[in-house]
From TrEMBL:
Domain Myb/SANT-like: 1-79
Name of protein: Myb/SANT-like domain-containing protein
Organism: Chenopodium quinoa
Ranges for region Disordered: 110-153
Domain of life according to the entry: Eukaryota
Polar residues composition bias: residue spans: 110-121
Pfam families: Myb_DNA-bind_3 (PF12776)
Matches recorded under PANTHER family: EXPRESSED PROTEIN, L10-INTERACTING MYB DOMAIN-CONTAINING PROTEIN-LIKE
């Protein structure tokens, strides 16, 4: 279901139905109508707008990953750390310019998740048949298909969780250059020029810098 929704909204962008990088309400209404008719559910514009929040969050995290040197992003195949991101092109079309303008921009620390730890998903309500006896088998068949398509969104949400987890791990392992500089500058009995040279040397050699920060003040001078 998420796949169809992203494809529909991406096509709306291509048609020029997102002036000033903001979707028209009519686009959400049309998208909801498409979902309702295709999956025999009740989907309204609010559901589509809620889903867009998840898409924007996804793109915000992807943008952070792309902006981190050494994080292993491959723009040609839309992968990070050998993990391919599904529907990348559609997500970038639908939400890309929102993030570029600063609208709805979020860091991974701002992401709101549900009780399962994953970003919120689109919610739709199944319609009731006028004749339960004659249409119930067909209803269950259509509902099963809708649930299968809903798995697309859950898969993207899972990938988003993996991106967030990997990004946090990556950032946690980064050298705190400001802390390193502050600790070196505390060594007042060492000539300032020597301290600056030591800082430059350690920044270029991360393992030595980490070892320096781990040592006591007395051992740092040895």
């Amino acid at each position: 279901m998420s796949k169809e929704l992203l494809e529909f909204l991406a096509e709306e962008v291509r048609k020029g139905h997102r002036p000033n990088n903001t979707f028209r309400t009519s686009s959400f209404i049309d998208a909801a109508k498409m979902i309702s008719e295709k999956f025999h559910t009740t989907c309204i514009a609010d559901h589509v707008e809620n889903h867009m929040r998840t898409v924007r969050i996804t793109w915000g995290v992807i943008s952070q990953v792309r902006g981190r040197s050494g994080f292993g992003w491959d723009d040609n195949v839309k992968m990070y750390l050998n993990k391919k991101i599904d529907m990348y092109d559609e997500i970038s079309i639908v939400a890309g310019k929102d993030i570029a303008r600063g609208n709805f921009s979020k860091t991974f620390g701002d992401i709101q998740t549900n009780s399962s730890g994953q970003p919120s998903t689109i919610e739709v309500e199944p319609t009731k048949s006028d004749s339960a006896t004659s249409s119930e088998p067909r209803y269950h068949k259509k509902r099963s298909r809708a649930e299968e398509e809903e798995g697309d969104l859950r898969h993207i949400s899972t990938q988003l969780g993996e991106v967030v987890s990997a990004l946090k791990k990556f950032l946690d392992n980064q050298l705190d250059v400001e802390k390193l500089y502050g600790e070196i500058m505390k060594m007042d009995d060492v000539d300032e020029a020597v301290r600056v040279a030591a800082f430059d040397h350690l920044v270029e050699r991360e393992m030595l810098a980490r070892a320096f920060l781990t040592k006591s003040e007395a051992l740092r001078k040895l």
